[in-house]
Amino acid sequence: MLKRRDFLKTGALAALSPLPTEADELAGQNEKTVQEPKRELPVVKETDVVVCGGGPAGFAAALSAARNGAKTTLIEVHGCLGGVWTSSLLSNIIDSNGKPGIMKELIDRLNATDAQYTATKYDAELMKWTLEEMCKEAGVEVRLHTRVTAAYRDKSNKIEYIATESFSGREAWKAKVFIDTTGNGELAARAGCQFDVGEPETGKVQPMSLMVILSGLNEADLVTAGYIKGPGKDGSPTEPGNKKLHAEILKAGIDASYTMPSFFSIRPDMVALMVNHQYGVSALDAGAVTKATLEARNEVNRIVDALRKMGGMWSKLRIVTTAAQIGIREGRRIHGLYTLTKEDLINGAKFDDGVCTVNFVVDIHALARGEGGGYSSGGVKMKPYQIPLRSLIAKDVNNLMMAGRCISGDFYAHASYRVTGNAVPMGEAAGKVAAKAALTNRLPKDISWDKA
Ligand SMILES: Cc1cc2nc3c(=O)[nH]c(=O)nc-3n(C[C@H](O)[C@H](O)[C@H](O)COP(=O)(O)OP(=O)(O)OC[C@H]3O[C@@H](n4cnc5c(N)ncnc54)[C@H](O)[C@@H]3O)c2cc1C
User: Which atom of ligand 1 is nearest to the CA of 91?
Assistant: First the structure.
């Protein structure tokens, strides 16, 4: 029997059957195990499409599935939609420029509600509201505060039902098609899909960062002092990866773990800050993510305190809030019908079933302390390339799709397509295909993209 320890390390399930039970998962984690009693679960919903994870990809997937006629439920563990956009306070959208469909519609909506400060910077609070309103208007049933914890397959290798834990206890949900948009590929892993994690040679993953919203800074002062550039190409302030800011923090007495920290100006008097790197943290290990969160919150508080004590332009600096969820750059990459590779990026690959074009570079944040503390392209020079629909369809489970950062790609491809301007069109495509498959009683792999 494959033990949980091996499963976490390799993602290699030797055989698809039998599925790992929760007891199997516990075994190996501790010397001692307990046998959980069998119990009946209430089936709270039987529907067309269930989308698990309400981040940029999941929001778009659910919206798209509902708009294409499918009865759709979106399940999210946090108390708001948006994922890294909101629970992790990102405040910055990359690679949305020129993207049609839901991405454009969302930017227009954010502009209309004054949530969008520049072409790429937004107010995370208004983002939450906008996403909720758009889902409500499309008839998506949203369930917040609910974590997907298990998935069970039938004899035809389809997920028959998933189990969740929430204020309501343990519940079961049935659907014709499921979409994994949990970022970390949690649903697919629970369903027994194979996956990869990290750099191929070492298994190392990109670091995590805890975003901070600050008050007491004036955008004009930041531009004058050279901490943000302005005006940018679109006539609005932009931020460089900022060695000058790192040097200033060093002067204040702290060697920040991220050497290219960035301010994102989201209002004339409010900025977001990305200033730390938590290295070598597995997104598959709750204890490690907890430790990283505590260390990160300690570091960002110490940095802000130290800057404020320097006086001058920092004298009124305050943390408004730190993110509830530390920003996770990298988790599982679920095996799909096609795996996007570094070579596809170098060649600018195009596909008959291409669902969106990625223009963003390979962006690998230092994998370990002592590797410069910034980010690099890993030596890969990409040309704009497409993501094929097949990378959104699970290889090992028949009625499962993925969208967002857990799709099928290698370490380098993931470091490029992972940004939110691509997560949204991926979600939109997955939702459309899932709806078509569910409504015609077919599998996602049997839907051709040009007819979807
Ligand atoms: C620190 C940091 C900085 C970044 N900078 C940028 C940037 O400037 N611009 C940009 O565009 N991109 C940036 N990215 C990348 C981008 O934010 C992510 O790759 C993107 O959010 C991926 O979208 P997603 O929907 O796949 O995943 P996520 O945003 O991670 O959303 C996943 C959702 O699933 C939910 N979930 C997870 N597990 C479960 C479960 N078991 N049950 C129910 N719900 C679950 C989560 O709560 C979350 O809401 C950054 C990422 C990080 C971490």
Answer: 8
